[in-house]
Amino acid sequence: MASDQLSQAKAVVRDFVLEMRGGKRMMVLAPAGQLKSTVCSLSKNLEVLRIRRGEQVRRLPLTDIRGIHAGTEPEGLSTPLDDLCATIVVAPDNQLLTFRFEHINARDTFVMCMLLFAQSLGAEMGAGDGQQEEGDEEEEYMDEEEEESEAAGNDGAQFMSGVGSEA
Fold first, then answer.
1. CA-atom Rg of the chain in angstroms
2. Measured distance CA(13)–CA(62) in Å, rounded
C-alpha cells in the first residue's frame, strides 16, 4: 500500500513539473479581487518561478519563498481569499502573491510541490516578522529583453516585486 502511495505521489510531482516547465495559465488574485491571467513556468533546474503577464516577466527565486498558505490564510487581508487560493509569502519584505485555482486538487498540488521545491533549495520558511502591510498594487516586471539578458548571465539577484501583491 505504501509503495502505491509513493508511486502516486511521484507521478503527481512529475506531472506538475512537466506542466509547469512548459508554462501553465494561472490566475493571480489582486488585492481588490480582480483575477489577472498569467502564464507561470518553472526554470529547468526548478529554482525560479517565472510569472508572465503579456510581454512582462517577474522572476521569483524559490529561495525567496517564506511560506505558502492554502485557502483563506493568512487572515486579516483585504484580498478576498477563498478555499481555491494559494498565497505565497515572498522575501525580502514578506510581500504576498495569491493565485486562484479552478479546483482544490490543483491548489493542493501547487502548494505541496512549491513547498517541496522551495524547502529542498533551503528556503527559510516562516522567516520574517509577518506579512507586509497592504497597500496599492504595484506591478514591476522585466520585459522580454531584460529576461533574456538575465538568463544569459545575470545571477537574478534583483528581486522584482509586484503581480497581485498585497504590498
1. 15
2. 16
What residues have CB less than 8 Å from 59, skipping those under 6 apart?
Answer: 48, 49, 50, 142, 147, 150, 156, 160
For the chain, the residue count is: 167
Are 141 and 57 in contact by the 8 Å Cβ rule? The answer is: yes
pTM of the model: 0.76
Kind of pairing, strands 24-29 and 142-143? unpaired
CB 156 within 8 A of CB 61: yes
Position 27 pLDDT exceeds 80: yes
Q: With contact defined as beta carbons under 8 Å apart, do 86 and 69 qualify? A: yes
**Residue 9 has which C-alpha cell?**
505521489
Residue (of 25, 50, 26, 29) closest to 165 by Cα position: 29
DSSP, residue by residue, 26-59: EEEE-TTS-EEEEEEEE-TTS-EEEEEETTEEEE
140-146, Cβ contacts within 8 angstroms, sequence gap of 24 or more? 140/58, 141/53, 141/56, 141/57, 141/58, 142/56, 142/57, 142/58, 142/59, 143/55, 143/56, 143/57, 144/55, 144/57, 146/57
What pLDDT was estimated at residue 63?
Answer: 96
> What is the phi-psi region of residue 126: left when phi exceeds 0, alpha when psi lies from -120 to 50, beta otherwise?
left
